[in-house]
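Sequence, please.
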């Protein structure tokens, strides 16, 4: 039986995660980047965002099957309770529950931290991604029309949103991920999310 591990990612995981991500940049419109980032830049993203937000990695028999993370939605103060999420899955591990497991862990942990909203931008057309995000509880919130130019074509970016809690009362400050990373609650969230993966 293959060994499945779902855990917080570290900078040591950067080379393997970047190897998974690079084809999304060079071969698809899933990423809006034209060139894959350098290892130094990619490691810097993990280091910078990881000061406040979670990055999770899924390993199957020691190989990276996927990873997912949250990043700030906007930098100004009033947006501090909203994040954007991204999930990337290795080609061989699509349709095995890896993406839904990563999302389940992110939902649980971001809610623990005190976040209210998750946004995801989907380059159109991508019916498969829209259906997947709909199944994960996201709803269409709008689109940026003709906002992205890649591979010789202008493309729309559809935005979908998911609420993590009711929007009532004044929000409390969010808790940085490193402060809860090793807590039993996060360990339980990862353990439960891992159960979504089927081989």
């Amino acid at each position: 039986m293959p060994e499945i591990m779902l855990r917080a990612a570290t900078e040591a995981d950067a080379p393997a995660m970047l190897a998974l991500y690079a084809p999304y940049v060079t071969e698809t419109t899933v990423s809006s980047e034209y060139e894959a980032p350098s290892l130094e830049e990619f490691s810097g993203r993990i280091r910078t965002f990881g000061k406040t937000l979670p990055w999770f990695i899924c390993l199957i028999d020691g190989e990276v099957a996927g990873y997912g993370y949250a990043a700030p939605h906007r930098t100004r103060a009033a947006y501090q309770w909203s994040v954007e999420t991204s999930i990337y899955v290795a080609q061989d591990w699509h349709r095995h529950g890896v993406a839904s497991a990563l999302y389940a862990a992110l939902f649980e942990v971001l809610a623990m931290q005190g976040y209210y909203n998750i946004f995801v931008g989907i380059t159109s057309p991508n019916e498969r991604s829209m259906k997947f995000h709909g199944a994960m509880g996201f709803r269409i919130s709008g689109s940026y029309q003709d906002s992205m130019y890649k591979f010789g074509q202008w493309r729309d970016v559809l935005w979908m949103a998911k609420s993590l809690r009711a929007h009532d009362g004044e929000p409390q400050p969010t808790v940085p991920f490193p402060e809860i990373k090793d807590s039993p609650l996060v360990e339980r969230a990862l353990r439960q999310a891992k159960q979504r993966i089927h081989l």
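Helices lie at 14-27, 39-49, 98-113, 127-135, 177-180, 184-194.
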